[in-house]
Amino acid sequence: MSVFTITLPDGSHQSVPQGTRPLDVAKSISPRLANDAIVARVNGDLFDLTRPFEGDAQLEILTTKNPDALNVYRHSTAHLLAAAVLELYPGTQLGIGPPTESGFYYDFQRDAKFTPEDLERIEARMRELQAKNLPFERKLTKKSDGLEKYKDDWMKRELIEERAGEVFTEYTLGPDFIDFCRGPHVPSTEKLKAFKLLSIAGAYWKGSEKNPQLQRIYGTAFFTPKELQDYLNRL
Ligand SMILES: [Zn+2]
User: How far is ligand 1, taken at its centre, from the CA of residue 179, in Å?
Assistant: First the structure.
């Protein structure tokens, strides 16, 4: 079995067996660090805490103090939103769900319009899913298999055509949800402690009015309920 050398920001080294994950290194440093960790930076790139190292690496564990961690946290909450929408409204198609300056959104294609009451239902389902502590898991899919698998999902097909290499990544969230995504994400929904859905708007696919119009659900998320409440009070 291979052994990798992991170099930490203070210059110290650890030798770890193949299969070791950034989360394991965080736990070996301190349970507190593992608890506060949101995502890793490995050789300069953001990297899931639960993704095994693939070789020697420079490792930084990003906690709630790091702005990049907030983007990953918010994007992970967007997946939770998409999972809740698909459970409540089967047949909805997924666009993209990036973080924004102040939260996140997800674009959906669905014939019926989302209403403010729907938003409340969706948020309630997000809370149910969050409480199940569902893991985010990274999967590798061959491009040819992906195009076949998503042959009835035009937005996903376009994204795979444009962005996927020979192999691309998908992330599951629990047993029932999978989405095309580069990641990274938080390890599990346990981390997603404070979010709120805010509004619904129309949005064109890829921002062009030549493309079909989608429904965009905006939300926000913070590391703590207090930060979320302070933000909502300011709105
Ligand atoms: Zn994602």
Answer: 7
